[in-house]
């Protein structure tokens, strides 16, 4: 018997609903880079790591917002019409999940960046250093998976 088909595939309608829902929770480095290169105003990127890790290298345009500091008070001035993208080091770190969870609990729309900074760098997207968010380079998005 087929190892793949040992568990039958879901019906097309079930797969469609599941996959559509899954994409509402996550984004990947390529899609985020495309939006940042275009200056998409509806999203804000938060680096959920410590300020020291942020300063050592972060996504261009991302704001430092360590997950441990997220509260009703620290988010009071955030625009609730935006979608907040959270990231941390990568798949071995759950800081982005903790940040997204806290933001969602406070009523914000959130998505996590799949693979975090690790996948971002792997795909060759630009970084910046220091305590400022920085700006997206004028040359646009770097080559990546091209999905």
TrEMBL record:
Task: Outline the extent of the Rhodanese domain.
Answer: 39-129
Q: Residues of the signal sequence?
A: none
Which PROSITE patterns does this UniProt record tie to the protein? RHODANESE_3
The family database entries (SMART domains) matched by this protein are listed as:
RHOD
Question: Which InterPro entries does the record match to this protein?
Answer: GlpE_sulfurtransferase (IPR050229), Rhodanese-like_dom (IPR001763), Rhodanese-like_dom_sf (IPR036873)
Q: Which Gene3D superfamilies match?
A: Rhodanese-like domain
Give the transmembrane ranges. Answer: none
Please name the Pfam families in this protein's record.
Rhodanese
Question: Which named protein is this?
Answer: Rhodanese
């Amino acid at each position: 018997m087929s190892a793949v088909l040992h568990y039958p595939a879901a019906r097309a309608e079930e797969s469609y609903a599941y996959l559509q829902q899954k994409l509402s929770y996550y984004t990947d480095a390529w899609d985020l880079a495309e939006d940042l290169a275009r200056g998409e105003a509806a999203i804000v990127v938060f680096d959920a790591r410590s300020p020291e890790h942020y300063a050592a290298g972060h996504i261009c345009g991302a704001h430092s917002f360590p997950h441990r500091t997220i509260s009703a008070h620290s988010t009071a001035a955030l625009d609730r019409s935006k979608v907040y993208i959270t990231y941390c080091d990568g798949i071995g770190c759950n800081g982005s999940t903790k940040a997204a969870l806290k933001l969602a609990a406070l009523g914000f729309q959130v998505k996590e960046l799949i693979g975090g900074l690790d996948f971002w760098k792997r795909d060759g997207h630009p970084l910046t250093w220091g305590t400022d968010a920085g700006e997206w380079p004028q040359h646009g998005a770097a080559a990546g998976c091209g999905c």
